């Protein structure tokens, strides 16, 4: 069975608009069967099948649809869950959502007011003593200094609703088994569809794709639908069936903690907290119960309570709606009359990354939680997944249109897997920081885990489970006396010492953190679809940067290769518009487009011309941005017309430095204005050089784009 890693004749079938068949001849590949398949028998032939219709799968579907790539999504559930799950959307993900046809703006308008969720609160009950609080928003978040948009607090199911509306706008439909008939639906019928109630049950690698089996319930009878695709994208979550079928193992720490997630509503409680002690997370410690309350929407009284449990002594089945209501009342400190438990789910906390992201001869790709499972501390899970999709989509588009070589898929793994490993470590550190608070109060979680292990190993084979449960809960009850009013008091020497330590942890920023701007915006790809800088120097600087970011958390803009393009407000010249926009908006959200940023210098214009010539040769979409100093105008800015002729795909913009910074674009990027910066469609820098470093411009630029596209260099 031939591997496609080293080339092969990929040909596009029904992948969208604007396909140019000459591209195949330019790559000099023999025409084999369609990427959408040909050996799948009577199965529908599709360019892409995505498994999983969570936020990551839907985001990936939207990006591909915008790029003209048709795909089919398989979702095993018959309905989208209303359990809130993830809720924090970081800077980088919100930047990506700005180009989802206004999705970021929709989120900002629909989310709760920021003053209702900017704090984490530590207390003995929701109506009891406040032990401390942390405000996680800074003035620069509102001033939008480092990003054109701020973070958001928005429940996952609400995000899914908005994504479905965006997908509807680009021609996607949600279908159920009875709407598709039997198992022989044709490919055109399945394109740009979300097939609800379809679970990926088998995969088989063929000579030119993957034959996917999707089981579904048709009128009470289980059937299997076969689909043949060129690419199978597994976005089916932490318990990924695609990953399991592909035999890809996870590496890391498992079962860090088991918890019960209780989704409930209470407008009375929401109204009380909104007026008395608003916050996003409430860490509650008292002699009767311990838990973490996530306030998803105080205005509507929507909450999720997270409670640890310890099987087999405590089982998920023990947590009935009535038991959960009783725990809620203990943590609230009074009994709201309108508590309604909507859903109860068990889950286990892991810190794992898939050993590889790509399998089955580059035909199968893992995305999101299917590729990595983090502790929720810091909200890295969904955010990392959406950014996976953003990294992958433009590469798939160029591949499916015959522009990039199939091995470009490997750059997705080489870029995104190190980010996941780093975020796993950071999530673990943040989780340990969260655990430092109960430990300081005398409720060390490691002791609870040790007690649980002793009971399992020492008593498990001697006494029945019910008696084990009594012993375990009795010991835990004794342990919770450490947070009684008598001990946890300024009048008690031990309590006073513990409270002082708690305040120090909070004041020094050593507790659970919400925002990580250095990591959210400052991560950098070291190898992949880019032309790396000097290896030894880069590695040393990167290690230094990693350590400094962990300690300070400050984002430092950089134009180093692999970095996200720094944000700066600019104003277009030669236009009647008075509007301003971010440098990130130079990249189109509707097509994979490269941007070349230069200063208005003769040598830079010449190199930009050569770059436009080569992008035409490669049939890539590209444009030049000429960055003028603040105050430029008049006749001088008209020089770009003649300097870049005959090309007209350029824009002249004027810097708008902030009064508090007053640095030019090139100073913010920490490079000279003789630099030329090549930016990829995902807003990461693919190459940077200075004009006096390039001798044979056309040859060098051709080499650069060949390397980015994983094409053999001629």
UniProtKB/TrEMBL annotation:
Gene Ontology terms: biological process: ubiquinone biosynthetic process
Domain FAD-binding span(s) in chain numbering: 46-420
Keywords: FAD, Flavoprotein
Classification via InterPro entries: FAD-bd, FAD/NAD-bd_sf, RIFMO-like
One Pfam family this sequence matches: FAD_binding_3
GO cellular component, one term: mitochondrion
Keyword Protein biosynthesis attributed: no
GO molecular function, one term: 3-demethoxyubiquinol 3-hydroxylase activity
Protein name: Predicted protein
């Amino acid at each position: 069975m031939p591997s496609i890693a080293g080339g092969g004749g990929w040909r596009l079938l029904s992948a969208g608009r604007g396909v140019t068949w000459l591209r195949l001849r330019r790559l000099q590949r023999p025409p084999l069967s369609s990427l959408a398949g040909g050996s799948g028998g009577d199965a529908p032939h599709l360019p892409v099948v995505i498994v999983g219709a969570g936020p990551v799968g839907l985001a990936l579907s939207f990006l591909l649809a915008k790029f003209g790539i048709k795909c089919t999504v398989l979702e095993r559930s018959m309905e989208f869950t209303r359990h809130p799950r993830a809720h924090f959307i970081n800077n980088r993900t919100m930047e990506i959502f700005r180009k989802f046809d206004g999705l970021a703006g929709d989120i900002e308008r629909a989310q709760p007011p920021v003053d209702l969720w900017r704090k984490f609160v530590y207390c003995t009950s929701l109506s009891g003593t406040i032990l401390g609080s942390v405000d996680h928003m800074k003035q620069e978040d509102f001033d939008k200094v480092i990003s054109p948009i701020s973070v958001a607090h928005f429940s996952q199911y609400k995000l899914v609703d908005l994504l479905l509306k965006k997908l509807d706008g680009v021609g996607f439909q949600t279908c159920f088994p009875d709407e598709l008939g039997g198992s022989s639906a044709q490919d055109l019928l399945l394109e740009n569809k979300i097939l609800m109630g379809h679970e990926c049950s088998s995969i088989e690698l063929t000579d030119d794709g993957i034959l996917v089996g999707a089981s579904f319930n048709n009128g009470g009878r289980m059937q299997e639908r076969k689909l043949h695709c060129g690419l199978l994208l597994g976005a089916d979550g932490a318990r990924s069936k695609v990953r399991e079928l592909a035999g890809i193992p996870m590496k890391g720490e498992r079962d860090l903690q088991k918890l019960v997630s209780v989704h409930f509503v209470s407008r009375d409680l929401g109204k009380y907290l909104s007026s008395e002690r608003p916050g996003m997370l409430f860490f509650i410690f008292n002699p009767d119960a311990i838990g973490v309350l996530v306030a998803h929407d105080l205005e509507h009284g929507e909450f999720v309570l997270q409670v640890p449990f310890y099987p087999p002594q405590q089982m998920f089945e023990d947590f009935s709606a009535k038991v959960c209501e009783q725990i809620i009342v203990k943590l609230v400190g009074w009994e709201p009359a309108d508590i309604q438990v909507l859903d109860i789910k068990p889950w286990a906390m892991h810190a794992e990354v898939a050993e590889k992201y790509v399998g089955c001869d580059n035909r199968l790709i893992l995305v999101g939680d299917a590729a990595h499972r983090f502790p929720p501390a810091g909200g890295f899970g969904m955010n990392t997944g959406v950014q996976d999709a953003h990294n992958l989509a433009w590469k798939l588009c160029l591949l499916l249109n015959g522009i990039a070589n199939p091995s470009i898929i490997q750059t997705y793994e080489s870029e995104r897997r190190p980010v996941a490993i780093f975020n796993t470590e950071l999530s673990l550190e943040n989780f340990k920081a969260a655990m430092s608070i109960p430990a300081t109060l005398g409720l060390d979680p490691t002791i609870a885990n040790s007690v649980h292990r002793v009971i399992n190993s020492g008593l498990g084979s001697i006494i029945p489970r019910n008696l084990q449960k009594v012993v375990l809960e009795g010991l835990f009850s004794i342990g919770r006396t450490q947070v009684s009013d008598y001990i946890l008091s300024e009048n008690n020497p031990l309590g006073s010492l513990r409270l002082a330590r708690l305040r120090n942890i909070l004041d020094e920023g050593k507790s659970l953190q919400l925002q990580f701007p250095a990591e959210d915006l400052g991560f950098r790809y070291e190898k992949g679809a880019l032309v790396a800088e000097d290896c030894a120097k880069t590695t040393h600087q990167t290690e230094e940067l990693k350590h400094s970011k962990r300690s300070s958390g400050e984002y430092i803009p950089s134009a180093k290769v692999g970095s996200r393009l720094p944000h700066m407000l600019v104003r277009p010249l030669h236009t009647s518009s008075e509007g301003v926009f971010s440098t990130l908006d130079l990249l189109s959200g509707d097509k994979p487009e490269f941007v070349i940023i230069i200063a208005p210098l003769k040598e830079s214009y010449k190199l930009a011309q050569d770059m436009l010539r080569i992008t035409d040769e490669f049939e890539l979409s590209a444009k030049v941005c000429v960055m003028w100093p603040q105050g430029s105008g008049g006749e001088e800015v008209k020089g770009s017309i003649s300097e870049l002729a005959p090309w007209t795909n350029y824009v002249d913009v004027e810097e708008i430095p902030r009064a508090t910074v007053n640095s030019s674009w090139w100073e913010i990027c920490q490079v000279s204005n003789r630099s030329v910066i090549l930016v990829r469609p995902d807003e990461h820098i693919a190459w940077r050089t200075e004009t006096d470093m390039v001798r044979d411009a056309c040859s060098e630029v051709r080499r650069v784009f060949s390397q980015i596209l994983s094409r053999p260099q001629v």
